[in-house]
Amino acid sequence: MNKLTFLLLPSLFLFLTACSSSEVVYKGIKHPQTSATETTFEEHTIPDGCSAFAHLLMNTKANSLGKDLGEAMRTEAMDKGANLVLIGLAREDEDAGLDTNRFDYYGPEYSYNFNRTWLGWKFGFNEWNDGGALIGFGANASESRETIFPHTMMIQAVFLRCEAN
Question: DSSP label at 61?
């Protein structure tokens, strides 16, 4: 009995440690990594050959520079295989106070042609509706080393994979 307990305790410890991990594992659609990605803030600029494969909210860490947030979004997109990112609105989330950026994904279950099927920003509403004021996070802010965002924000985004022209 003592030998059995001795063997089971380490196994139980490893199981509990694995269960308590706070790292989110991405389970969505993934393409081969890209070495570069473009960012747009305007839906009408999406080329016809682009498929949307990930809807997400980026929850930013507090006290971030705009350029750092833009780079974090592009890095995440390239890792998932996006060569184009559409960024929507940003909303303050003063209560969150995150120390690291977090990406929460909301589907879709399959890739779709963006220009034929996009239905708008209809994901993550439970989190989005709990947010604060809208924040200006456009092209200028996402490239700025002078713009600092003191609070956590939620930023809407869609990752797209576009055919080469």
Answer: P
Contact indicator for 51, 110 with CB cutoff of 8 Å: no
Q: Report the alpha-carbon distance of residue 68 to residue 71 in Å, rounded.
A: 5
Whether omega for the bond prior to residue 32 falls within 30 degrees of 0, making it cis, is: no
pTM: 0.82
132 close to 94: Cβ distance less than 8 angstroms? yes
d(CA 123, CA 5): 48
User: CA-to-CA distance for 165 and 82, rounded, in angstroms?
Assistant: 16
CA separation for the pair 2, 120 (Å, rounded): 61
User: CA geometry: angle at 35 spanning 29 and 37, to 5°?
Assistant: 70
Burial of residue 88 (CB within 10 Å: 0-12, 13-18, 19+) is middle
pLDDT digits (tens, 9 = 90+) for 57-115: 999 999 999 999 999 999 999 999 999 999 999 999 877 778 899 999 999 999 999 99
